[in-house]
Amino acid sequence: MEEEKRKKNWNNVNCPVRTVLDRIGDKWSILILLILGDTEKMRFNQLNKEIEDISQKMLTVTLRSLEADGLVNRIIFPEVPPRVEYNITELGKSLLPHIKALSEWAKNNLETIQESREKYVS
Amino acid sequence: MEEEKRKKNWNNVNCPVRTVLDRIGDKWSILILLILGDTEKMRFNQLNKEIEDISQKMLTVTLRSLEADGLVNRIIFPEVPPRVEYNITELGKSLLPHIKALSEWAKNNLETIQESREKYVS
DNA sequence: CAGCATCCTTTCTGATACTG
DNA sequence: CAGTATCAGAAAGGATGCTG
């Protein structure tokens, strides 16, 4: 039974890193964390401008997910028109160095990877 | 024009870490890298047993992707029945510490994240 | 043994229109 | 301003059967 195997969900039980990547391994989370890590706070539309190619929907969805995980704060000001500010939490800050380390590795090895990919056939 | 914005592909140009996550941020790559990082070499079916809940297709697809990026080696022995061995490359090894650091962070903060998620409403 | 091919389901992302 | 709701397309992942 192939189905039986899947139920063990081996990867998340024995591989905690997957639990993180399930959260921040998506298309936008890391970028948002990096931006919020570089600023004190930011409003929704500021983020939307900063990340030129994100859709409003995905910005909302991603921010909500990061908020749920306790990586960013969402502060609503009861004004008209509404103002909502986002900032990174302490938990988020503690994750940042690891993201940046990964980013450094990426910068340093991007070329190697790309060359490898171009040479690769079949 | 919403479409115009996307073409800039801001995230990959200005955010190299995304280029890495586009590759290893999938469901299985990290796990495979961790396993191959802990062993000298491994055959296809060994990996398939080690990762109990991966499908044969995804194991093939993921290994090919890692190979294309130069993170793992694929060595084919011209025998019958065929034998194919996989091992991690030097490039892959250089990435490993960062994955493990992320993994450590995950272990240490899993509970906090889960609590945050449970408390989160809408 | 180590796959490949095909079909199918699920999940992710985006476009668009609308709103307190 | 900062969203929500809905729909549609793309991509990822899985089940199954077949093969050198």
UniProtKB/TrEMBL annotation, chains A, B:
InterPro entries: HTH_HxlR, WH-like_DNA-bd_sf, WH_DNA-bd_sf. One of its GO terms (molecular function) is DNA binding. Pfam families: HxlR. Transmembrane segments: none annotated. Residues 15-114 form the HTH hxlR-type domain. The keyword DNA-binding applies. Keywords: DNA-binding, Transcription, Transcription regulation. The keyword Plastid does not apply. This is Transcriptional regulator. It comes from Ancylomarina salipaludis.
